[in-house]
């Protein structure tokens, strides 16, 4: 009888221990899942997500904006990524002082192009583009170190190529808007790297360019669309603001 009781106690102890081990393993796996499930998005293309530091396939920028998301522990359904509308604030990431190398003149000329396109004014957009080219040609990099100077020259080279299409194609507003979307990426990168004294916002229209290229920089909180103008003037949303 004592032997039977002893064996029964051993069996009970083994069952409890096994259940406790399974519970610990389940908790450990849940923790690992939570750690590896963190996603980051591109500040220019928030719909692009991946691991921190990965490059965005659309623009080449690093994925730096942490994305809030649900997990399997919270919901048995497939996890859904939820982007915070104000999480993509544009901030200077370089080591260059904003006062040492202001980008305000470049940003202001860019905004003139944007405002012309919101009014469907192709001729004014072309004239503003030529003003921006003159500003880019007249800018200096004497205050920059070699690494920063190379970054700046890269932005300017791309911007010149894109803005030239806008300046040379008065009357062809669709063509101008196509290159304005590329110019917007250049200006965004410039602001991200060197900063600006101005308060500007990044806006996005999902209806333009199949949802891939409809980004622009604006000086107003109101969304005024340069890609559709009067056709869909307020189509889009604000992604983030300079902090």
Name the strands of the widest sheet in spatial order.
2-1-3-4
Structural class: alpha+beta
Helix content: 40-55%
Q: What would the average pLDDT be, to the nearest integer? A: 76
Low-confidence stretches: 9-36, 70-100
Distance between the termini: 78 Å
Q: Number of helical segments?
A: 5
As a percent range, the share of strand residues is: 5-15%
Gyration radius, to the nearest Å?
26 Å
Overall tally of structural domains:
2
The rough form would be described as globular
> Tell me about the biggest sheet?
4 strands, antiparallel
Descriptive labels:
2 domains, four-stranded antiparallel sheet, 5 helices, 46% helix
How would you concisely characterize the structure shown here?
The chain is an alpha+beta fold and 243 residues long.
Helix-strand blueprint:
Elements: H1 2-36, E1 39-41, E2 49-50, E3 65-69, E4 81-82, H2 104-118, H3 122-138, H4 146-167, H5 173-194, E5 201-204, E6 215-218, E7 237-241
Antiparallel strand pairs: 1-2, 1-3, 3-4, 5-6, 5-7
Structure write-up:
This protein has 243 residues and is an alpha+beta fold. The chain folds into two domains: 2-82, no CATH class; 104-241, no CATH class. It contains five helices and seven strands, in the order αββββααααβββ. A four-stranded antiparallel beta sheet has the order 2-1-3-4, with no helix packed on it. It has a three-stranded antiparallel beta sheet with strand order 6-5-7. The longest helix has 35 residues, at 2-36. It is globular, with a radius of gyration of 26 Å.
């Amino acid at each position: 009888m004592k032997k039977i009781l002893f064996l029964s106690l051993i069996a009970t102890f083994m069952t409890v221990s096994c259940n406790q081990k399974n519970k610990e393993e389940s908790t450990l796996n849940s923790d690992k899942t939570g750690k590896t499930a963190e996603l980051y998005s591109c500040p220019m293309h928030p719909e692009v997500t991946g691991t921190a530091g990965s490059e965005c396939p659309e623009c080449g920028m690093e994925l730096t904006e942490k994305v809030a998301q649900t997990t399997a522990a919270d919901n048995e359904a497939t996890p859904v990524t939820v982007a915070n509308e104000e999480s993509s604030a544009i901030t200077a990431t370089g080591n260059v002082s904003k006062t040492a190398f202001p980008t305000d003149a470049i940003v202001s000329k860019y905004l003139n192009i944007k405002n012309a396109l919101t009014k469907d004014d192709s001729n004014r957009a072309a004239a503003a583009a030529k003003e921006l080219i003159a500003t880019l040609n007249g800018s200096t990099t004497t205050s920059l170190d070699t690494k920063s100077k190379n970054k700046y020259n890269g932005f300017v080279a791309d911007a010149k190529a894109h803005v030239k299409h806008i300046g040379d194609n008065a009357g062809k507003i669709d063509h101008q808007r196509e290159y304005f979307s590329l110019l917007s990426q250049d200006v965004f990168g410039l602001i991200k790297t060197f900063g600006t004294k101005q308060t500007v916002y990044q806006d996005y229209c999902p209806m333009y360019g199949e949802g891939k290229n409809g980004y622009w920089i604006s000086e107003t909180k109101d969304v005024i669309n340069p890609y559709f103008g009067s056709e869909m003037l307020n189509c889009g949303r604000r992604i983030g603001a300079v902090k």
